[in-house]
Design a protein that fits this description.
By secondary structure, the chain is α/β, with parallel strands linked by helices. The chain contains 23 helices and 13 strands. The longest helix is centred in the last third of the chain and has 22 residues. It binds 6-O-phosphono-alpha-D-glucopyranose. 6-O-phosphono-alpha-D-glucopyranose binds next to α8. It comes from Shewanella violacea (strain JCM 10179 / CIP 106290 / LMG 19151 / DSS12).
């Protein structure tokens, strides 16, 4: 048993959540619920009134946060303590968006200075590319960026660039290659011209198989399209902590942008890993993105727990996972530009909190991170929302929508908003059997038929959701939004006392994949493996060519 589940507050929460009335009743009892259960910070508004909670629930949750020393754990992260204990690393993505005058000392070095130097290098590079002064090997300016990376080195740049499309430099295009599946890079390169294409190889470790393989194929494509080995310097840059390996790989030393081991892959878009974003939206907008995140950092570090947006959201997620048996959490973005955000939050949260032991190695006796999934509204309403409304699983939802659209076309935005708010309302209130019967009045059906259909139309409601609004999707509000989710993830990991910053499961997959590779290549026999793996390997060997 862990200390957490034995604590009095944990057990009080268990008992309390069982007795809580339906949210419909809570709304009837408290007409000011929207005012008291909503908050604003850093350009974001959060309505958390449609949650299974009253003031007592909130008090118990904040008490749990206090007892598990959340405030001092937050401070430890910002101070650069080695909170990633298994990899013996500080966790300082917040330093990437610190103000230039701040000082964050790690091992005797002010890392803010190093961050600023790298940002200055990025700024020079962005100007060179966007002004056209950086020329390709035939003297033409760069028109296409191909970003090669995977995991955090793929999702961050891709999804943030996609989200900030209205801010794109009109003379540039950006393409992202992640998967090692040759189809991905082949299709991406097909329409491109080697003379005007720049490759950014993004890999924190510079040892990820997919990224190395894709970069080698990109080099082959480049050379086979008429360029020479010497031309590589004008067309290939890298972002990595492993400068030596990148140089050895053939990347010109001047074209290497450094990063640091205190930046986790899934928290790296704020570093030079964000170079594709900076190229597409310009360095001023990139800085606005960092500033938005920095504002959220300040809010998270300095606001009392009961008014702290990431804390509130983290506690609600924990409430559903640990006390209502919710196994998943859905993120629904009512903005086409934000359609990739669920996938980004999926890596952020599932790679961080998909853990089974506490920091001291004790096996947990509670659920940790849920499955994060989602998509864009209103599309999902005509598909998986059915399960949200009437399925047997409880799936808490986050609805995210800017109040103003970048494309204010006719009635589109007002309809989008009506759908967003209508969904949260339907999830909360549901439809009672009696209401369904009333709706069937006047239908040409027998009483028995009406009763049966009413049972099918009945919806229990009491399905929780948060609604996050912002005035407009800008680099600043996006920065705040992403940092909000980073810290929301941290809050849960801190209360569970797990390490949210390692990823041993992913590492195992990588090393077994490498072992299988040697067996697929017939260098090594596979007969000592389990019969399924052996069978699959043999089938591939015999039939893949
Ligand atoms: O940037 P790299 O070192 O190539 O790593 C790419 C990715 O590798 C692994 O899958 C990690 O779990 C991710 O967090 C990381 O972003």
């Amino acid at each position: 048993m862990t200390e957490l589940t034995q604590s009095q507050t944990w057990n009080e929460l268990k008992a309390h959540t069982k007795d809580l009335p339906h949210m419909r009743v809570l709304f009837e009892q408290d007409k000011l619920r929207f005012d008291t259960m909503s908050t604003s910070a850093c350009g974001l508004f959060l309505d958390y009134s449609k949650n299974r909670a009253n003031q007592e629930t909130l008090s118990l949750l904040f008490k749990l946060a206090e007892e598990t020393k959340l405030a001092s754990k937050i401070k430890a992260m910002f101070d650069g303590d080695v909170i990633n204990t298994t990899e013996k690393r500080a966790v300082l993505h917040t330093a990437l968006r610190a103000k230039p005058e701040q000082k964050i000392i790690l091992d005797g070095i002010n890392i803010v200075e190093e961050v600023q130097q790298t940002q200055a290098k990025m700024a020079t590079f962005v100007t060179a590319i966007t002004s056209g002064s950086w020329k390709g090997y035939t003297g033409k300016s760069i028109t296409d960026i191909v970003s090669i990376g995977i995991g955090g080195s793929f999702l961050g740049p891709k999804i943030v660039s996609q989200a900030l499309r209205p801010y794109w430099n009109k003379d540039l295009n950006c393409h992202f290659v992640g998967n090692v599946d040759g189809t991905s890079i082949t299709e991406k390169l097909k329409p491109l011209d080697a003379e005007t294409t720049l490759f950014i190889m993004s890999s924190k470790s510079f040892s990820t198989q997919e990224t190395l393989t894709n970069t080698l194929s990109a080099k082959d494509w480049f050379i086979s399209n008429g360029a020479s080995q010497a031309d590589i310097a004008q067309h290939f840059v890298a972002v990595t902590t492993n400068v030596a390996k990148a140089t050895e790989f053939g990347i010109d030393a001047d074209n290497i942008f450094p990063m640091w081991d205190w930046v986790g892959g899934r928290y790296s878009l704020w570093s030079a890993i964000g170079l594709p974003i900076a190229l597409m939206i310009g360095m001023d907008n990139f800085r606005e993105l960092l500033d938005g995140a920095h504002e959220m950092d300040k809010h998270f570090a300095n606001t009392p727990l009961s008014e702290n947006m990431p804390v509130i959201m983290g506690l609600f997620s924990l409430l559903y996972g640990n006390f209502h048996n919710a196994q998943s959490h859905v993120v629904l973005t009512y903005d086409h530009y934000l359609r990739g955000l669920p996938a980004y939050f999926q890596q952020l949260d599932m790679e961080s909190n998909g853990k089974s032991v506490t920091l001291d190695g004790t096996r947990v006796d509670f659920s940790t991170g849920p499955v994060i999934w989602g998509g864009e509204g209103t599309n999902g309403q005509h598909a998986y929302h059915q399960l949200l409304h009437q399925g047997t699983a409880l799936i808490p939802a986050d609805f995210i929508m800017p109040l103003k659209s970048h494309n204010p076309l006719g009635e589109h935005h007002i309809q989008l908003a009506s759908n967003c708010f209508g969904q949260t309302q339907a999830l909360m209130q549901g439809r009672s059997y009696e209401e369904a019967l009333v709706e069937l009045e006047g239908c040409d059906l027998s009483i028995d038929e009406k009763s049966t259909i009413a049972k099918h139309k009945e919806m229990q409601g009491n399905k929780p959701s948060n609604t996050i609004l912002m005035d407009k999707l800008t680099p600043g509000t996006l920065g705040s939004l992403i940092a909000l989710y980073e810290h929301r993830t941290f809050v849960q990991g801190a209360i569970w006392d797990i390490n949210s910053f390692d990823q041993w499961g992913v590492e195992l997959g990588k090393s077994l994949g490498n072992d299988v590779l040697t067996r697929l290549g017939a260098e090594k026999d596979a007969s000592e493996l389990d019969c399924s793996s052996n069978g699959l390997i043999n089938m591939f060997r015999q039939q893949s060519i």
